[in-house]
Every structure is written in structure tokens, then in C-alpha cells.
Amino acid sequence: MSAETFAHVSNLVVPTATVIYALAMMSHALEWALGRAVVVKDAEVKQDVLVASGGEAVTAGTASTGPASTRTASAGSASAEAAVPGTERMEAASRIGLTLTYLAFVLHLAGVVTRGLAAGRVPWGNMYEFSITASLAVAAVYLIFVQRYKLQWLGLGVTLVVAAVLGLATLALYTPAGPLVPALHSYWLVIHVSAAAISGGAFTIGGLASVLYLVKARAERRVLAGGTMSASLRRLPSAEAMDGTAYKVLAFAFPLWTFGVLVAGPIWAEYAWGRYWGWDPKEVWSLVTWVVYAAYLHARATAGWRGRNAATIAIIGWFVFIFNFVGVNLLVSGMHSYAGV
């Protein structure tokens, strides 16, 4: 197949994947909508919250993430889900959403690969290519963790983010496949950008898990105060378990970001521009991102921060990463400005 054919295939399957991600998002949104229409009895919800927290009230900022408590939370969540009326329709919507996400991911992967074949190089030489590759990493990290940690509850947030990034890339950032600018001709580019994309995908999963942690923790506190909880929130793992999930994902991403961005990046910069560090805006915001996540991990390890405090730092880190990914490339002029064309 010729480069033009590969380019045509990529230009066809990437928008198709975007539409299917959007359909998956709608299916997960329906799942949440069905759950919001069902309010579980106060006594049943309170019993579930107490089981999930090991018999004690779950309070933000104090939840632990030990294996025993996670197993107890999972058991409580599973038993609770079986008792929730209307779960069958919610579960069906969840399965459809996950199936569509797998289908969209396959097409998405094909679009990234054929884009690389069309250009005759790694497919991340400009903002369009990095957008489709980074969003692929988000979907890949999510699907891997779905298999290992049963993270279907992140489906709505993940498909929303991926569909939005792909839609923006297709409509506003598209650039025809072409050769790399001279500064990008280095194998360090492959190491640097691939590590940034994978760790960025994990940052996104951790950020979304932290957002849902805050939602679930607030609902659990309301239940313990005598309130109610919708079936959609009750089907989520306990806030304690979600806090642990966010920690695991971010602990995986941090060393990868450290090596790929703050080690491989400067080595590539010395090759491309003759200096390891020049306080370029992209370099500065990559360092800021690293500092925020370092603070997150340090606070958990030394100060014992859990729950709301840790989730807040994780969400701040995610927004800093998003600004580094989008805002710096599109709004700030610097040595990395070629990535925004």
C-alpha cells in the first residue's frame, strides 16, 4: 500500500473511532442515568457503607488503602450491587459501553499505526499526531486496568475525554502526514514521547478516579448522616477503594514520567538544540507537573495523607498536565512550538 492509501485509511478510521467512543460515552451516560432514577433504602445503603469502611464511618482524608480493607470494600460493593433494583439494565448499558470502547480502541490503534506508515516515521511529530497517540494511551491504560482492577466505573469519564481529544484533533488540529522537522530526528524522541503519552494516560485515569472518589466520599458521608444514595453511586466501589486505585495508577505513572520527560527529554534536547535544559515553557511545565505528583506521593508516604487531601492534589496535577499538553503547545511560544502546528 502507498503512503497516500495509509493516510486515507487513517483519516477514515480515526473519525470513525471518535464516533464509536462517543456512542460508548452515551451508553455509560445511560448507565448513570438509570442508576440515578433508583434510590436505595436508607438502611440498606448505610449497611453497605459500613461494610465498605470496615465497620467505621468513611471520612475524607482518613481512609486507608490496605489490602484487607480493599477486599472488604469489594465484597460489600458486590453484595450491595446484587440487591439494587434495576441493576440488570444498568449492567447491560455498562457492558455495551465497554464493548464499544474495545471496538473504538481497535480502530483508534489502526488509525495511529496507519498514520505512522503514511508518514514513514513514529506518529507524533505534530500536535495532531500527539493528540491521537496520547488519547490512545488513555484508552489503553483504562482497558488494561479494567481487566486487572475492574474499572468499568471509569468508563464515562474515559470515553468522554478520549472522544473530546479525538474530536478536537480531527476538527482543529489536523495536519497532513509529512516528514519530521530536523530537531525531531532522534530515537530519543521515541523514548521521550512514548513515555510521556503512557504516563499521561495514567495521569488521566488517576485524575478521573480522584474526581469520582470525591463524589462517592461525599455520598457516603451523607448516608451516614441519614441521607440516601442513588443506585449508580452505590454500584461504584467504596471511596476507600477508589482512593487506593488512584494511588496505584499514579505510583505507576510517576517514575515513567520522571524517566521519559526529565531524563530522556533533556538528552534529546541536547541532541536537538545543544543544551540539556533551557527553561523553555514546555520544560518548565513538565517540571511543574513532576513537582505536583511528587508532592502527592510524598504526602501519602510521609504525612499519611489519604482521601480528600490526596485526591485534591491528584486533580490539580491532572489539570497541570492538561495545560502542559494543550495550553503550552497552543498558547505559549517556545522551542516546542512546532508541536502545535
Sheet-strand content, in percent, reads under 5%
Largest sheet: none
Helix content: over 70%
Mean pLDDT: 82
Strands, count:
0
> What sequence of helices (H) and strands (E) makes up the elements?
HHHHHHHHHHHH
Structural class: mainly alpha
Domain Cytochrome c assembly protein: 124-336
InterPro entries: Cyt_c_assembly, Cyt_c_biogenesis_CcsA, Cyt_c_biogenesis_CcsA/CcmC
Membrane topology: Multi-pass membrane protein
Main location: membrane
Structural features, described:
By secondary structure, the protein is mainly alpha-helical. It has 2 domains: 1-40 and 84-177; 181-341, no CATH class. The chain is built from 12 helices and no strands. Helix 2 packs antiparallel against helix 3 (67-83). It is flat, with a radius of gyration of 21 Å. Residues 124-336 form the Cytochrome c assembly protein domain. One of its GO terms (cellular component) is plasma membrane. GO terms for molecular function: heme binding.
How would you briefly describe this protein structure?
With 341 residues, the chain is mainly α. The protein has helices at 3-36, 42-52, 67-83, 87-119, 127-149, 155-173, 187-224, 231-234, 239-262, 264-273, 281-303, 307-331.
Q: What labels would you give this structure?
A:
about 350 residues; 2 domains; about 75% helix; flat; Cyt_c_biogenesis_CcsA/CcmC; Cyt_c_biogenesis_CcsA; heme binding
List the helices and strands and how they pair.
Elements: H1 3-36, H2 42-52, H3 67-83, H4 87-119, H5 127-149, H6 155-173, H7 187-224, H8 231-234, H9 239-262, H10 264-273, H11 281-303, H12 307-331
Helix pairs in contact: 1-4, 1-6, 2-3, 4-5, 5-6, 5-7, 7-9, 7-10, 7-12, 9-11, 9-12, 11-12
